[in-house]
Design a protein that fits this description.
By secondary structure, this protein is α/β, with parallel strands linked by helices. The chain is built from five helices and five strands, in the order ββαβαβαβαα.
């Protein structure tokens, strides 16, 4: 998480622009998001900070997201600016928006007009879920998966050998 800081407004509250990407190889995207958000805030005359976060939209434990929520609940954030709703969280952004409403934090979504269709959003959600679970599956349990794949291959080979030996099985 990185923050670019500008002085808070007269009421002690500030605007936070939140930028997030899924993985390290999207760092250029993260920087483009941060620049776009910062320019948007400056153009509107808002003193602001940019929080850059790295991680899945399904991960609720990202350092930047936690910092953002803590500051909102301390009533230090006048406005939250994001490029798209899913930059905050893939699922559960509405809960964060409800927290913002409770603490009188305005939410500004820069690219609201770029709303995607229901089918496109569903496809993005499914891909995100598959990506996250694949990473967990292949990362934390790769040795178990290799054993499972080997056993599956052995079983398949064994069944093929059995079928070839006994042509009546089909």
């Amino acid at each position: 998480m990185q923050m670019a800081q500008h002085p808070p407004s007269e009421n002690g509250r500030t605007t936070i622009a939140y930028a997030r990407v899924f993985s390290h190889d999207q760092k250029a995207d993260l920087e483009r998001q941060a620049i776009l958000l910062s320019e948007f805030c400056t153009k509107n005359g808002w003193s602001h900070e940019v929080i850059r976060d790295l991680g899945s939209g399904l991960n609720y434990h990202k350092k930047g997201l936690r910092e953002l929520l803590q500051r909102i609940m301390r009533n230090n954030v006048e406005r939250l600016v994001i490029t798209h709703k899913d930059r905050l969280l893939r699922f559960g952004a509405e809960l964060v928006f409800a927290i913002c409403e409770e603490f009188q934090t305005e939410v500004v979504i820069v690219n609201k007009s770029d709303e995607v269709s229901y089918e496109e959003e569903l496809t993005q959600d499914v891909l995100e879920i598959i990506t996250v679970f694949s990473a967990r599956l292949y990362g934390s349990r790769s040795h178990k998966n290799k054993k499972l794949i080997e056993r599956m291959k052995e079983a398949t080979t064994h069944d093929e050998d059995k079928t070839e030996a006994d042509p009546t099985t089909e």
